[in-house]
Design brief:
Length: 203
């Protein structure tokens, strides 16, 4: 079997020296040498075939790892608020699960602030200011805009508030989060936010 290296990045003589060192280390002759060519010996042909198999196994192993990077599998446990979770987060995660059949979703809908590490969650989605949590990484997903509104019947009975100052005097359905009633943040003309707490909130 005749063999000649192709695509060399250094002179042919360099290959000859490398082969000689390899033969010395293995203790066998891999090539029959002439002034014009190198011919594989029986041992050389056997060694060459085994090396090809080893390189193929490496290629297969690399492909398996690359495939694992592209395909997500395993259990993903997520905590999220009830409303925004059902309307916004769950549909996105459902699409993700369809793209990755090996992904198992475990979704928890609750407005309670969970201890991510202690309760075994992989991910928690929250809206509003976040408390400092050592060892956790937070990323902003977007803005959640809210609107103040009232029914026509309520406005007929209690009147339309004419300014922000009148808002606390009205009845309100407030949002309780982490055992606290959340105040309203009203944007002002100068770009700042004014905090308003209804006097008679219904939670």
């Amino acid at each position: 079997m005749r063999w000649r290296p192709t695509g060399c990045i250094f002179p042919f003589g360099g290959w000859v020296k490398t082969i000689a060192r390899l033969e010395q280390r293995l203790g066998v002759r891999l090539f029959h040498r002439t002034t014009r060519s190198l011919n594989l010996t029986d041992d050389g042909a056997l060694f060459y075939e085994r090396c090809l198999r080893a390189l193929e196994e490496i290629r297969v192993a690399e492909n398996l790892l690359e495939s694992g990077k592209r395909q997500v599998s395993g259990r993903l446990r997520v905590s999220m608020p009830v409303l925004i979770g059902r309307l916004c987060i769950a549909p996105v995660l459902t699409l993700l699960a369809r793209e990755h059949p090996g992904l198992e979703l475990d979704l928890s809908f609750s407005d309670r602030v969970v201890d991510v590490a202690e309760e075994g969650f992989d991910l928690a989605v929250r809206n509003g200011p976040l408390p400092d949590s050592a060892g956790l990484v937070a990323r902003r997903l977007g803005d959640n805009r809210m609107t103040l509104c009232a029914s026509p019947d309520y406005l007929a009975r209690c009147g339309m508030p004419r300014s922000v100052e009148e808002l606390p005097q009205h009845d309100a359905i407030a949002y309780r989060y982490a055992a606290m009633i959340r105040s309203w943040l009203i944007p002002q003309a100068d770009g700042t936010m004014r905090e308003v707490m209804p006097i008679n909130p219904v939670c």
